[in-house]
Amino acid sequence: MPTRTMKAIRLHEFGGPEVLRHEEVAVPEAGPGEVLVRVHAIGLNPPDWYARGGMPDVPPELKPPFDLPLIPGTDVSGVVEAVAPDVNGFVVGEEVIGLLRFPAALQGGAYAEYVTAPASDLARKPASVDHVHAAGLPMSGLTAWQFLIELGHDHPSPFQAARHRPMRLDSETTVLVNGAAGGVGHLALQLAKWKGARVIAVASGAHETFLRELGADEFIDYTKDRPEEVARGVDLVLDAVGGPGSRRFLHTLRRGGALYPVYFGEFDEDENKKLGVTVTATQVRSNGPQLAELGRLVDAGTVRVAIDSTFPLADARAAHERAARGHIQGKIVLTVPENS
């Protein structure tokens, strides 16, 4: 019997967007505990370009294994094509979404017409949205959920000894979201509003209308004002930009407040104690049940996924070039033609 083939994006070497190759490869087979998904759309995330570049700035002990050639990508929306005999939760023909095998592997295989997925990583696709919008939900939505709502696992963070414990959010809480227009930021804003919090959104001025429509109570245009100089008495900062500049938000917090940098930076525990604040982070992990909760919020109209732009799978290079230009509003998504 001839081998079934599909189109996929593969890396044979690490580098810039130009190393993304559109090739014909064998369709994978679902192993124990897995589902084969016919992919309709793929959400892009920063780990995709980290993997493409080979993660040169990451210490070897923190790098997941890379085996070239590899198919990148972790976020999918599609239809169940086949189910392993030991899988009971899904049936052929169901529409599903998932964050695949993260963070154990950055080569989740999502940039392809078909992908195998652990059934535990999947949830039913929200019925109220198309595959493009559904594909933008998994990693960004789970990041926002695990930072703000429920961690959902006991795995230690690679960045710190302290376990991340989300702060209780309610009508008495003020949350500042830095990078509020991006994939994680715009979903975190909505989750904080769902819990009743007052939300201050930080982004460039071009995103103000968009963020106020999502529920932002206050907006700071960082191109005009330094948010660390404008905001005071904040209960929680979710810094979706993070990194070395995250420390500047410490002085926006009240005593007892917390800073959650999505991309961890350098912090001084003595300074944190002196200010009376907590700094913790976590690493997002695949979680089908949490993704199902997010899907229900999408179906209820409580959360919506914004799409910055879409590109056909064959144009993954252009999608990565769009990501590199920054100032993204929502999510970038790759689409797979249904008749391919």
In CATH, the architecture of the largest domain is: Alpha-Beta Complex
Structural class, please?
alpha/beta
In CATH terms, what is the fold-level topology of the largest domain? Quinone Oxidoreductase, Chain A, domain 1
Helix and strand run = EEEHEEEEHHEHEHEHEEHEHEHE
Q: Radius of gyration over alpha carbons?
A: 20 Å
CATH class of the largest domain: Alpha Beta
Q: Main sheet, how many strands, which sense, barrel?
A: 7 strands, mixed
- The counted number of beta strands is 15
The fraction of residues in strands falls at 25-35%
Shape: globular
Q: Give the CA-CA distance, first to last residue.
A: 21 Å
What is the typical, i.e. mean, pLDDT? 94
CATH superfamily (homologous) name of the largest domain: Medium-chain alcohol dehydrogenases, catalytic domain
Instruction: Give the number of domains.
Output: 2
Can you describe this structure?
This protein is α/β, with parallel strands linked by helices and 340 residues long. The chain folds into 2 domains: 186 residues, Alpha-Beta Complex (Quinone Oxidoreductase, Chain A, domain 1); 124 residues, NAD(P)-binding Rossmann-like Domain (Rossmann fold, 3-Layer(aba) Sandwich), CATH 3.40.50. 22% of the residues lie in helices and 26% in strands. It contains 9 helices and 15 strands. The strands form 3 sheets. Strands 3, 4, 5, 6, 7, 14 and 15 form a 7-stranded mixed beta sheet that branches. It has a 6-stranded parallel beta sheet with strand order 10-9-8-11-12-13, with helices on both faces. It has a two-stranded antiparallel ribbon with strand order 1-2.
